[in-house]
From TrEMBL, chain A:
This is ABC transporter permease. GO terms for molecular function: transmembrane transporter activity. The keyword Transmembrane applies. Keywords: Cell membrane, Membrane, Transmembrane, Transmembrane helix. It comes from Actinotalea fermentans.
TrEMBL record, chain B:
Keywords: ATP-binding, Nucleotide-binding, Repeat, Transport. InterPro entries: AAA+_ATPase (IPR003593), ABC_carbohydrate_import_ATPase (IPR050107), ABC_transporter-like_ATP-bd (IPR003439), ABC_transporter-like_CS (IPR017871), P-loop_NTPase (IPR027417). GO terms for molecular function: ATP binding; ATP hydrolysis activity. It comes from Actinotalea fermentans. It comes from the Bacteria. CDD domains: ABC_Carb_Monos_I (cd03216), ABC_Carb_Monos_II (cd03215). Residues 4-239, 251-498 form the ABC transporter domain. This is ABC transporter permease. PANTHER family: CARBOHYDRATE TRANSPORT ATP-BINDING PROTEIN MG119-RELATED, GALACTOFURANOSE TRANSPORTER ATP-BINDING PROTEIN YTFR. The lineage of its organism: Bacteria, Bacillati, Actinomycetota, Actinomycetes, Micrococcales.
Length: 334, 511
C-alpha cells in the first residue's frame, strides 16, 4: 500500500501566485482611488504588513515542527508591556528594555515548549491556557492602562520611514531573511523541518523530536516578543490588549503564505507576500469606504481560498518533475 | 455463481505494482481464505472489492454482474461489507448507535432510540453478542467490538462479508466463538472472506483458499481439505523464483564480531536470543510476519528495553540508549521496513533525506550547514546507490519506491555506520531495483560493514546471507549455514517453522 503525500502535508510553493494576486489587487485599486498609488499609502500598507509578517513568522516556526501556538498574542502583549514597564516605570535604557522584552518572549515560549514536550497534554490546551495567562499577566502589570511616553528612538523606529518604506519593514525583512536562512541552512532549522515532516523517521535517524518541539516554541516566543516590541513602537504605547487578534492573524498569514499545517514545509517568501496581501486588503477596504468590520470576513474567505489554491498546486507538484523546495527563499531575497 | 469476484485486477501506486492480474472468487455459503505475506497485495485487493481503490484494470463482479464501485457505500449497496483490522467504532456512542450507524431509525427527523435498541437486538443475537444495546461501545472488549462490527456489516444486508485479520488481536477462546459464528453465517448463505496470517486457522476454518504472492494469485480458490500447512507456506513464499548466484561470502570469522547478542531477552517477549555478525558478514534473520524480527531490531536501537542478556559491539558490552546513541556513538543504522511511515520525509529533498545523519558533522560556525558541503557529502553516496532523480533537490515523494528505498539506505551510508540493520529491504520495489539492492548490500559487506538482514523473502536470504537464523514467536529456532542450495534450505526451514507454529498454535481446527 502506498500513500500519496496528502495535500495538507505538502503545503504549497505559493509565492508566484501570491505575487500575481498582489499585482492584480494594485491594478484594480489604482484607478478606483487616486490616493492608492501614493508614497504615503505605500507606507501605510508596508507598515501594517511589516507587523503582520512577524506575527506570522512566530506561527510558522511552530508550524514547521508540526505544532501550533495559540499563545502568540499573549506573549507579544507580555513582552511589549514588560518593555513599557521598564521604560516608563523604571526609566531603564531602551536597549536594556528591548533585550528584556525579547528575553521575556523567549522564556514564555520555552515554558510552552517544555510543557508541550514533556506533559503529554496537547499543545492546543497548553498554549490556549498559557496565552490567556500571559495576556492576564500583562493586564495585571499595566492595570489595563497602556504605558505612554515611550522614548523617541522607539517611536521613530515604529512610525518613521525612508521614502515610502517604513523603518519597521527593515526589521521585518531582516527577521525573515534570518528565518529563511535558519530553515534552509541551520542545523536546528533542519531539525524542526525534519521532525515536522516525519516525526517517526526523524526519531529513528537519531534526531530528537522533543528538542525540536521545545526549540520551536522558544523561537516562536522570541519572535512573538519581537512583534510585541514592534507593535508598541508602532502604536507609541505598550498595551496589554495588543495581541487580541494575533492568533488568527498569524494562522492567516502562515497558511496563505503556503506553510503546511501538518509540518515539514515552510515558505518565508510566501509569508511576506501573504502579509502584504492582508495589509493591502485592509487598506483597500478603508480606501473604498468599506466598514472595517468586513476585514475579518475577508480574512476568513482568504484562508479558504488559500487552502483551495494550495490543493490545486499540490496536484500540480505530483505530476511535475521539478520539485518545489522545502524552504523557498526567493520571496525573501527579492 | 460467485457471490463476488475480482477478475484480472491490476493496481499500481506511484510506479509500484501492488496487484498484477489478481483473481479472487468467493462462492455464496462458503468461507474463503485469502493468505499471503506482507506486501503480497491482500489489503489492496480487499480495498478494490470494497470500493476504496479503483483498479487500474480488471473487473469486480457481484453476483456475476460487473459493477463499478465508487466508494464504500457503493460496495455496501451491492451487499459487500468489510470489517477491517483496526476497530472502527465510535467509543462514546451506544452499541445500538454503532450498530445502526449507517441507517439509524428516525421519527420526525429525530433519532428513534426505542426502535434503535429494539432493532439492534436481533443483529446482536445473530453474532452471539450478549450485551446491552444501551451500553457504550468503549465498554466492550476487543473481541466484543469485533463482533459488533460484524453485526454492523451484516445489518446492511451484506451477502459478502470481508474480514481482514479478525483474529490478530483476540484470544484463542474468543477466536473459537468467532469461528462458530462465521460457520453459522456460512450455513445461512453468506460468503465470508477470511484474511489471516495464522495458517492453522485458515486450514481449520475455511472451505477454499486463495494465495497471493507479489500481487499475483498463485493458488486460486483451491479446496482447503487435504491441503497442508507446508503447501500453503510454499505457495506464499514461492519456490520457483529464479535467482542468481549466491554472493561470495566475505565475512572474517576470525575478527571480533561487530555485533553479538548473548541470551538477550526483551520486554517485547524475546527470549534467549543469541546471534553474532562479523565485519563483512551478512546474517539473515528469517521468519514469517509476526515472528518478532523488527521488534528485536528496535530493541537494538534502544527503542525497547532489554530484560536480560548482553549486547556486545566490537567485543565490548554496551547499553544503547536511543537511536541517536546508536548512530553517533555505536555507529548502528536501521533501515525500516516502513519506508514512508518511518523512513522518509516525503516532502523534503533527496539531499535533506540523506543528510540527516551527517548534519552534526557538517555544521560550521553557529550551526550552519553550507549547501556545498552538504552536496559534497551526500552526492557521492546518492551516486553510489544509483538513485535515479532529477537532482539532489528533487522531492523524495516524487521518486519511485525503489529509488526511495535507495535513499533510505544511502542515509546510513552517509552516516558511515559499521553495522546496518536492513528490514525487508526489497519490499515493494521493482525487480531491477531488487537486483541493484543485492549488489549494493554485497558491496557494503565487502567494504567491511556488518549487515543484519531481516527478510521474509527466502530467495533473498539465500542470495545474500552467510548464515540464516530462523525466528518464530520471538525465539531463534534454528541456525543454518547458507549452502546456497535453495531447495534443500527452504524445505528444512519450512519444516522448522511449521513445527514451531504447531507448538505455538495448538490444533483448534475442530473447535
Amino acid at each position: 500500500m502506498s500513500v500519496r503525500p496528502s495535500d495538507a502535508r505538502r503545503g504549497t510553493s505559493p509565492w508566484v501566485p501570491l505575487l500575481v494576486v498582489v499585482a492584480i489587487g494594485c491594478a484594480i485599486m489604482a484607478p478606483l482611488n487616486r490616493q492608492f498609488l501614493t508614497a504615503s499609502n505605500g507606507y501605510v500598507i508596508l507598515a501594517s504588513a511589516g507587523l503582520l509578517c512577524v506575527i506570522g513568522l512566530a506561527q510558522v516556526v511552530v508550524l514547521s515542527v508540526g505544532e501550533f501556538s495559540l499563545a502568540i498574542g499573549g506573549i507579544g502583549a507580555l513582552s511589549g508591556v514588560a518593555m513599557g514597564y521598564l521604560l516608563v516605570e523604571r526609566g531603564a535604557p531602551l536597549a536594556v528594555a528591548v533585550v528584556v522584552a525579547l528575553a521575556v518572549g523567549l522564556a514564555a515560549g520555552l515554558v510552552n515548549g517544555l510543557l508541550v514536550a514533556y506533559s503529554g497534554v496537547h499543545g492546543f490546551v497548553i498554549t490556549l491556557a498559557s496565552g490567556g495567562a500571559f495576556t492576564g499577566l500583562a493586564l495585571g502589570i499595566t492595570e489595563t492602562q497602556p504605558y505612554n511616553g515611550l522614548p523617541e528612538a522607539l517611536t521613530v523606529f515604529g512610525t518613521g520611514r525612508a521614502g515610502f518604506v517604513p523603518y519597521l519593514a527593515f526589521a521585518t525583512v531582516a527577521l525573515s531573511l534570518a528565518a529563511a536562512a535558519f530553515f534552509r541552512w541551520h542545523r536546528l532549522g533542519r531539525l524542526l523541518l525534519t521532525v515536522g515532516g516525519n516525526r517517526e523517521a526523524a526519531a529513528l535517524s537519531g534526531l530528537s523530536p522533543v528538542r525540536a518541539v521545545v526549540a520551536a516554541h522558544a523561537l516562536s516566543g522570541l519572535l512573538a516578543g519581537a512583534a510585541g516590541v514592534m507593535a508598541a513602537a508602532q502604536l507609541h504605547e505598550a498595551n496589554a490588549s495588543v495581541g487580541a487578534e494575533w492568533v488568527i492573524t498569524s494562522f492567516t498569514v502562515a497558511i496563505i503564505g503556503g506553510t503546511s499545517l501538518a509540518g515539514g514545509v515552510v515558505s518565508i517568501g510566501g509569508l511576506l507576500f501573504a502579509g502584504v496581501i492582508l495589509a493591502l486588503i485592509k487598506d483597500a477596504l478603508v480606501m473604498l469606504d468599506v466598514n472595517p468590520l468586513w476585514v475579518t470576513l475577508t480574512q476568513g474567505v482568504l484562508i479558504l481560498a488559500a487552502v483551495f489554491l494550495g490543493r490545486s498546486s499540490g496536484w500540480r507538484a505530483v505530476r511535475r518533475p521539478a520539485a518545489p523546495r522545502a524552504v523557498s527563499l526567493e520571496g525573501a531575497a527579492s | 455463481m460467485n457471490a463476488v469476484e475480482a477478475r484480472r485486477i491490476w493496481k499500481t501506486f506511484d510506479g509500484n505494482t501492488a496487484l498484477r492480474d489478481a483473481h479472487l472468487a468467493i462462492e455464496p455459503g462458503s468461507i474463503h481464505a485469502l493468505v499471503g505475506e506482507n506486501g503480497a497485495g491482500k489489503s489492496t485487493l480487499i480495498k478494490a472489492l470494497t470500493g476504496v481503490h479503483r483498479p487500474d484494470r480488471g473487473d469486480i463482479l457481484v453476483g456475476g454482474v460487473p459493477v463499478t464501485l465508487a466508494g464504500v457505500h457503493d460496495a455496501m449497496r451491492f451487499g459487500v461489507s468489510a470489517v477491517h483490522q483496526e476497530r472502527n467504532l465510535v467509543p462514546e456512542l451506544s452499541v445500538a448507535e454503532n450498530l445502526l450507524l449507517h441507517q439509524p431509525p428516525r421519527r420526525g427527523g429525530l433519532l428513534d432510540y426505542q426502535r434503535m435498541y429494539r432493532e439492534a437486538e436481533p443483529w446482536l443475537a445473530r453474532v452471539g453478542l450478549d450485551v446491552d444495546p444501551r451500553a457504550r461501545a468503549k465498554t466492550l472488549s476487543v473481541a466484543q467490538g469485533q463482533l459488533l462490527e460484524i453485526a454492523r456489516a451484516l445489518s446492511v444486508r451484506a451477502s459478502v462479508l470481508l474480514l481482514d485479520e479478525p483474529t490478530a488481536s483476540i484470544t484463542e477462546r474468543e477466536a473459537a466463538v468467532l469461528f462458530g459464528i462465521l460457520r453459522e453465517l456460512r450455513d445461512a448463505g453468506t460468503a465470508v472472506l477470511f484474511v489471516s496470517h495464522k495458517l492453522e486457522e485458515v486450514l481449520g476454518l475455511c472451505d477454499r483458499i486463495t494465495v497471493l504472492r507479489d500481487g499475483q494469485t498463485v493458488l486460486d480458490g483451491v479446496q482447503a481439505q487435504g491441503l497442508r500447512r507446508a503447501d500453503l507456506i510454499t505457495a506464499m513464499v514461492g519456490r520457483s523464483v529464479a535467482f542468481a548466484e549466491r554472493r561470495e561470502p566475505c565475512a572474517r570469522p576470525e575478527a571480533v564480531p561487530m555485533l553479538e547478542l548473548r541470551d538477550v531477552a526483551t520486554e517485547l517477549g524475546h527470549d534467549a536470543v543469541n546471534l553474532s555478525v562479523a565485519p563483512g558478514g551478512v546474517v539473515a534473520l528469517y521468519g514469517l510476519v509476526g515472528a518478532g524480527r523488527t521488534e528485536l531490531a528496535r530493541c537494538l536501537l534502544g527503542l525497547g528495553r532489554l530484560t536480560g542478556g548482553e549486547v556486545l559491539l566490537r567485543g565490548a558490552p554496551v547499553r544503547i540508549a536511543d537511536p541517536h546513541d546508536a548512530l553517533h556513538r555505536h555507529r548502528i543504522g536501521y533501515v525500516s521496513e516502513d519506508r514512508k511511515g518511518e523512513g522518509l520525509i516525503l516532502s523534503h529533498s533527496v539531499a535533506h533525506n540523506i543528510g540527516i545523519t551527517v548534519w552534526d558533522r557538517l555544521r560550521r560556525a553557529l550551526g550552519f550547514i553550507t549547501p556545498r558541503r552538504e552536496a559534497d557529502a551526500v552526492g557521492p553516496v546518492a551516486a553510489r546507490m544509483g538513485v535515479r532523480m532529477s537532482g539532489l533537490d528533487q522531492e523524495v515523494g516524487q521518486l519511485s519506491g525503489g529509488n526511495q528505498q535507495k535513499v533510505c539506505v544511502a542515509r546510513w551510508l552517509a552516516g558511515d555506520v559499521d553495522l546496518l540493520v536492513v528490514d525487508e529491504p526489497t519490499i515493494g520495489v521493482d525487480v531491477r531495483t531488487k537486483e541493484e539492492m543485492y549488489v549494493l548490500l554485497d558491496e557494503l559487506a565487502r567494504a567491511g560493514k556488518a549487515i543484519l538482514l531481516i527478510s521474509s523473502d527466502l530467495s533473498e536470504v539465500v542470495r545474500l546471507a552467510d548464515r540464516i537464523l530462523v525466528m518464530a514467536d520471538r525465539r531463534i529456532i534454528a541456525e543454518h549455514v547458507n549452502t546456497g542450495d535453495y531447495a534443500q534450505l527452504s524445505a528444512r526451514i519450512m519444516d522448522e517453522i511449521v513445527e514451531a507454529q504447531a507448538l505455538v498454535v495448538p490444533e483448534r481446527a475442530t473447535a
